[in-house]
Amino acid sequence: MSRNLSVNLAVPARNPATGVGLTGIGKRPVDHLVTVRAPGPMTTGLHSGLVGDQIFDIEHHGGDDRAVYAYAREDYDRLALRHPR
User: Fold this and answer.
1) Going by DSSP bridges, is the β-strand pair 27-29/21-23 parallel, antiparallel, or unpaired?
2) CA-CA distance, 8 to 69, in Å (whole number)?
3) DSSP count for the chain of H helices, then E strands
4) Which of 55, 60, 67, 74 is the most exposed place for a label (fewest CB within 10 A)?
5) pLDDT tens digits for 12-64?
6) How many CB atoms lie within 10 A of CB 10?
7) How far is CA 71 from CA 3, 48, 76, 77, in A?
8) How far apart are CA 35 and CA 77, in angstroms?
């Protein structure tokens, strides 16, 4: 049986690496319930499947096919070994 440990929403930050200007890749856990919804079409819809999350690069992110990502704790542990930050 699995359980959700946290829901994390974007913390907007400047992104000098792209022409987008802002990025929402930095996520932080929230301490309240978050509504999950179908965000609609990628470039014209609500963008994120989580109410309160922000997506700034709508050309490459968001939409119904990328509504919510869920990772297992083991995935984070494995990534932390490869990318320790």
Assistant:
1) unpaired
2) 10
3) 1, 4
4) 74
5) 888 877 666 888 878 899 999 999 888 888 878 888 888 999 888 888 888 88
6) 19
7) 11, 17, 7, 10
8) 27
Distance between CA atoms of 2 and 54, rounded to whole angstroms?
26
Eight-class DSSP state of 53: -
Question: What's the whole-model pTM score?
Answer: 0.69
- Provide, for the chain, the percentages of residues in helix, strand and coil under a 3-state DSSP scheme, each rounded to the nearest 5: 15, 15, 70
DSSP state, residue 16: T
Domain limits, the chain: 1-79
| Residue 67: pLDDT over 80 | no
